[in-house]
From TrEMBL:
Uppermost EC category: oxidoreductase
Family in the record: Belongs to the LDH/MDH superfamily. MDH type 3 family.
EC number(s) recorded for this UniProt protein: 1.1.1.37
Gene3D superfamilies documented for this protein: Lactate dehydrogenase/glycoside hydrolase, family 4, C-terminal (3.90.110.10), NAD(P)-binding Rossmann-like Domain (3.40.50.720)
Catalytic activity: (S)-malate + NAD(+) = oxaloacetate + NADH + H(+)
Gene name of the encoded protein: mdh
Binding-site list for NAD(+): 9-14, 33, 95, 118-120
Domain Lactate/malate dehydrogenase N-terminal, residue spans: 4-142
InterPro entries membership: L-lactate/malate_DH (IPR001557), Lactate/malate_DH_C (IPR022383), Lactate/malate_DH_N (IPR001236), Lactate_DH/Glyco_Ohase_4_C (IPR015955), Malate_DH_type3 (IPR011275), NAD(P)-bd_dom_sf (IPR036291)
Protein name: Malate dehydrogenase
UniProt keyword annotation of Cell division present: no
Length: 314
C-alpha cells in the first residue's frame, strides 16, 4: 500500500516538501494549514502537475486533521520564519504554541507516526514535539544537519571548483550559530578537505555555513530558505519510506551519546523504515568535542525554555 505523508504548514517549506515527495512518487500527501483555501489550492495545483511530472501520488489539501488519519510520516513545518536581524531562538514563544497545538492534533488521528520537525528554533521544537506526542525517540527527529551539510558541501565545491556530487560533508550540533561543521569528516571523493585547503580557507567556509540560514534571510528580506530545506526533508523521507538505511546527520534525542542526555542534537544517524535505527558516535579530537559541547549547552538553554513553557520543573 502507498504510504501516507502529512505535511503540516502549506507555506514555503511545506509546499516544497509536498512537491518533492510527489515528484519522486514517494507517497500520497496531505497538506494541512490553518489558513482556509491555501492548502486546498496548492494541493489541487500540485495534483494537476502529476501528468506532466509523471507521478500518481494523491495530493489532498485540508484544514481538518481528520484527513491526516493514519499518516505514516508527519512533517511539521508550521510556524513563523525569522526576519532579518532575528535569531532563530526569537521564534521560540510563537512557534512553541503552534507546534504544541499541531502535535496534539496530529496525535489524535495517527497512532504511531514518524515525526520530522522543521519549525524553528529546530532543536527546541523537535524536543517539544517529542514531549507532547509521547512517541519513542526513534520516531521523532528534526531536519537540520542534512541542510547544513548541503550548504557546507556547496561552499566546498564552489571554493575548489569541483563537482558538487563528489563532496560529502558532516555538520553536527544544534541548528544555530554554534553548529559544528566537521572538516575532518568532509571529503571530496574520499579525500578529506583538510588535505585540499588551508586552515584559513576552511575556517571561512565553516563560518559561512554557520551563518548559512541568516545569509538567505538577509537576501530574501521576507522569509527564509525553503528550496534546500525542502530538498533536505525529501531526502530524509526517501530514506525512511524506502528503508534505505542511509547515514545522515539528523536531530535526534540523545540518551548518553556524545555524553549528553535529554537534549535533541544533530548527530549522524541511520535512517530507515522505523525511523532512527541507530545513532553513530564519531571519534572526536578534543577541539571537536569542545565545539560540540558548546553547541549542546546552547541547545540545552532553549530546551529549558520549552520545559518552562510546558510547566515542567527544570
Ligand atoms: N529546520 C530548518 O533547517 C529550517 C526551518 N525552517 C522553519 O520552518 C518554518 C516554516 O518556514 P516557511 O515554510 O518558510 O514559513 P511560511 O510562513 O512560508 O509557512 C508557514 C506556514 O505555517 C502555517 N501555520 C501557522 N500556524 C499553523 C498552525 N497552527 N497549524 C497549521 N499551519 C500553521 C502558516 O499559515 C504558513 O502557511 C519556520 O519556523 C522556519 O524558521 C525553515 C527553513 C529551514
Ligand atoms: O535561517 C532560518 O531561519 C531558516 C533555517 O533554519 C535555515 O535556513 O537554516
Amino acid at each position: 500500500m502507498r504510504k501516507k505523508i502529512t505535511v503540516v504548514g502549506a507555506g514555503q517549506v511545506g509546499t516544497t516538501v509536498a512537491q518533492l515527495i510527489a515528484f519522486r512518487n514517494l507517497a500520497d500527501v496531505v497538506l494541512i494549514d490553518i489558513v482556509e483555501g491555501v492548502p486546498q489550492g496548492k494541493a489541487l495545483d500540485l495534483q494537476q502537475s502529476g501528468c506532466l511530472q509523471v507521478f500518481d501520488s494523491l495530493i489532498t489539501g485540508t484544514n481538518d486533521y481528520k484527513d491526516t488519519a493514519d499518516s505514516d510520516i508527519v512533517v511539521i513545518t508550521a510556524g513563523v520564519p525569522r526576519k532579518p536581524g532575528q535569531d532563530r531562538a526569537d521564534l521560540l514563544k510563537t512557534n512553541a504554541n503552534i507546534v504544541k497545538n499541531v502535535t496534539e492534533e496530529v496525535m489524535k488521528h495517527s497512532k504511531n507516526p514518524i515525526l520530522i520537525v522543521v519549525s524553528n528554533p529546530l532543536d527546541a521544537m523537535v524536543y517539544l514535539a517529542k514531549e507532547v506526542s509521547g512517541l519513542p525517540r526513534e520516531r521523532v527527529m528534526g531536519m537540520a544537519g542534512v541542510l547544513d551539510s548541503a550548504r557546507f558541501r556547496t561552499f566546498v565545491a564552489l571554493e575548489l571548483n569541483c563537482s558538487m556530487v563528489d563532496v560529502d560533508a558532516m555538520v553536527l550540533g544544534g541548528h544555530g550559530d554554534s553548529m559544528v561543521p566537521m572538516p575532518r569528516y568532509t571529503t571530496v571523493s574520499g579525500i578529506s578537505i583538510t588535505n585540499l585547503m588551508d586552515r584559513d580557507q576552511i575556517e571561512r567556509l565553516v563560518e559561512r555555513t554557520r551563518k548559512g540560514g541568516a545569509e538567505i534571510v538577509g537576501l530574501l528580506k521576507n522569509g527564509s530558505a525553503f528550496l534546500a530545506p525542502g530538498a533536505s526533508v525529501a531526502k530524509m523521507v526517501e530514506a525512511i519510506v524506502q528503508d534505505k538505511k542511509r547515514i545522515l546527520p539528523c536531530t535526534a534525542y540523545l540518551n548518553g551519546e556524545y555524553n549528553w542526555k535529554g537534549i535533541f542534537f544533530g548527530v549522524p544517524v541511520e535512517l530507515g523504515f522505523n525511523g532512527i535505527n541507530k545513532i553513530i558516535e564519531l571519534d572526536l579530537t578534543p577541539e571537536e568535542k569542545e565545539a560540540l559541547d558548546t553547541s549542546a549547552k546552547d541547545v540545552k538553554t532553549t530546551i529549558e525554555e520549552v520545559d518552562a513553557f510546558l510547566g515542567k520543573s527544570v
